[in-house]
Structure formats: C-alpha cells, structure tokens
C-alpha cells in the first residue's frame, strides 16, 4: 500500500517551529497566543467587511471578488496559525469568534469558485490584480494531518541532526518534550489509531535515541503505519481465505461513503480472489452467505480499524 506524505508541511507548523529554533542564522520569535488571536480576529473582521456571509460573495463586483480572495486568504493564514497553539483547544469558534466551521467551509467553497470564475474570464488575463488573486493558495489541511506533522517536527527539533545519540536536557529541549507529550495527548482524541503508533515511536526514541540514527521520524511513522495496515489486512485475508494482494488493492479504493449494498471498485477482482471452498473447510455451514458476510466484515474492518490509520 502506498502512503503519500505531502511535499511540504503546513506553513503554520514551520512558522510555529521558529519558537524552537536551533539558533544560528536569523532567529525569529513566533507570535504570542494573544498576538496570533488578535490577528485572527482582525482578519475575520476584514473578511466580514468584504462579505458578511458566504452567500454575499455571489453578489460582489469583480473588484469585490478580488478583495474577497485576499481577505479570505488572509483569514485562512491567520486561522492556520491560530490552530498550532495549545490555547486554541480551549476556544469554541461559534462562542468565542462568532463563526462556525460550516461558515468557514462555505467561505472556502466560495473562494474556490471565485478563483475558477476569474481564471475563465478572458478579460482578466492581463490584469495583475486578477493574476495575483487567482494565485492565492489556502493553508488549512485536515486537522489530524496538521497535528501529526507538527508533532513529528517537534520530535525532530529534539536533536541536532539524525546522527544524534542522546536527547539534550537543556531548557529548550525540555520545553519541546513537554509540548510533544501534550500534543500527542490531544492528537489521541482525534485519531487514536495513529496517535498510538506515534506515541510508541516517541517512547522508543526517548528510551534509546541511537535506534533512530539516520532515520527521519516521518519516514518511521509511515513505515509503522504501513506495517500495521498490512498486518491487519493479512490476518483478515487468512481468516476469510482471500488473496492478500487482492484484498489490499480492494481496500485502497474502498469508498466508505457508498451504500453498503452498492458495488465497490475492484469488487469483481476481489470475488475472483476469494476461495469459498477453502473457507468451507472450517465453516461448513456457511452456505451461500459467504460473499455477503465477506463484504460486511470488510466494511467493519475498514471502519473500525483501518480508516483512521489511513487518514493522512
């Protein structure tokens, strides 16, 4: 199974990591929580000024839509920055900032639509303001991935390089270790499956840093997840007398949002790779129920054990 790691980490994570700079070069202090929160509030005020609601975007003039793209991009930047602070976990968007996750999702949709609209405008090809606006990218990711990348980067910050044999015990490193422990505990609430693996790596590293010489923590994490998934798939394939490779391929394209009775991609290939005769040797009363039960249990396996592992 292939697990893709983004080509670059979320910029907010890199920005927050300046707080733990190794020194040398130009050190830049990350904003305090209060500063980051005020920037977020101001960006929200500016966004509401341009478009009080997501629906209001539709009625904007072309110039207004360009202003909206910039305002939402700035809001997205500020929101991304805000989420890397532990204080954010104590906040409630609707209660504390008077905006909901649905509002943000709707604004995001308008952002994408306006960009596409401006790209298709033949009159805007030579307009520098339009060209700049349609080049804007958003930073917010899946929340779990932000958490995981942030923790992995903090772990990397506990050593000078990948050849380090010990973990330093200076004040800076102790602060990072405390942050890692807190972030793993928080990550466990959103993705316990991946958090368990990440916590295992972190404990192993603390016990014996030399085990991780010349290894990148992100690579170690992906290898551990891959091994965990493979073990679950192989065990299931053995129990249900299915070729492991075919089951793995089926799971790669599994769409959990489909109705359980709707046909999945690669379902025919899976059926050809299943061996009901072999299964009957240990389950002689299975009758004609095998195929339906197989699909039912694959869904259960995916939802209960694989889905969170595969989220990245």
Please give a structural write-up.
- The chain has helices at residues 11-17, 33-50, 62-82, 93-97, 101-119, 128-133, 143-156, 171-190, 192-207, 217-240, 244-252, 267-272, 276-282, 290-310.
- It folds into 3 domains: 31-135, Methane Monooxygenase Hydroxylase, Chain G, domain 1 (Up-down Bundle), CATH 1.20.58; 148-160 and 167-215, no CATH class; 224-310, no CATH class.
- The chain has 312 residues and is mainly α.
- The radius of gyration is 24 Å and the shape is flat.
- Helix 1 packs across helix 3 (62-82), helix 2 runs antiparallel to helix 3 and helix 7 (143-156) packs antiparallel against helix 8 (171-190).
- Residues 30-283 form the Type I restriction enzyme R protein C-terminal domain.
- Pfam families: EcoR124_C.
- This is Type I restriction enzyme, R subunit.
How do the helices and strands line up, and which of them pair or pack?
Layout: H1 11-17, H2 33-50, H3 62-82, H4 93-97, H5 101-119, H6 128-133, H7 143-156, H8 171-190, H9 192-207, H10 217-240, H11 244-252, H12 267-272, H13 276-282, H14 290-310
Helix pairs in contact: 1-3, 2-3, 3-5, 7-8, 8-9, 9-10, 10-14
Domain Type I restriction enzyme R protein C-terminal: 30-283
Pfam family, one: EcoR124_C
InterPro entries: TypeI_RM_Rsu_C
What keyword list fits this structure?
single chain, 312 residues, mainly alpha, Methane Monooxygenase Hydroxylase, Chain G, domain 1, flat
């Amino acid at each position: 199974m292939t697990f893709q790691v983004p080509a670059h980490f979320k910029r907010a994570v890199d920005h927050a990591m300046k707080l733990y700079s190794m020194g040398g070069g130009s050190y830049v202090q990350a904003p305090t929580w209060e500063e980051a929160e005020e920037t977020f509030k101001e960006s929200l005020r500016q966004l509401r000024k341009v478009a009080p609601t997501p629906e209001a975007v539709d009625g904007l003039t072309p110039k207004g839509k360009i202003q909206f793209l910039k305002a939402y991009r700035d809001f997205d930047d500020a929101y991304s920055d805000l989420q890397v602070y532990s204080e954010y976990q104590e906040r409630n968007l609707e209660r504390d900032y008077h905006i909901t996750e649905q509002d943000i999702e709707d604004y995001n949709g308008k952002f994408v639509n306006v960009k596409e609209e401006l790209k298709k405008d033949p009159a805007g090809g030579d307009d520098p303001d339009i060209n700049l606006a349609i080049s804007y990218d958003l930073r917010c990711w899946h929340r779990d991935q932000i958490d995981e990348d942030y923790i992995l980067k903090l772990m990397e910050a506990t050593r000078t390089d990948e050849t380090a044999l010990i973990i330093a015990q200076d004040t800076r490193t102790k602060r990072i270790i405390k942050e890692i422990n807190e972030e793993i505990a928080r990550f466990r609430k959103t993705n316990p499956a991946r958090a368990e693996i990440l916590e295992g790596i972190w404990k192993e590293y603390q016990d014996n840093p030399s085990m991780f010489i010349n290894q990148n923590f992100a690579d170690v994490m992906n290898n551990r997840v891959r091994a965990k998934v493979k073990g679950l798939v192989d065990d299931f394939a053995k129990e249900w007398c299915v070729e492991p490779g075919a089951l793995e391929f089926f799971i790669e394209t599994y769409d959990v949002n489909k109705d359980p009775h709707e046909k999945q991609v690669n379902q025919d290939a899976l059926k050809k790779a299943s061996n009901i005769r072999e299964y009957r040797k240990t389950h002689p009363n299975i009758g004609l129920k095998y195929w339906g039960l197989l699909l039912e249990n694959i869904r259960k396996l995916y939802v209960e054990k694989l889905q969170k592992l595969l989220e990245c």
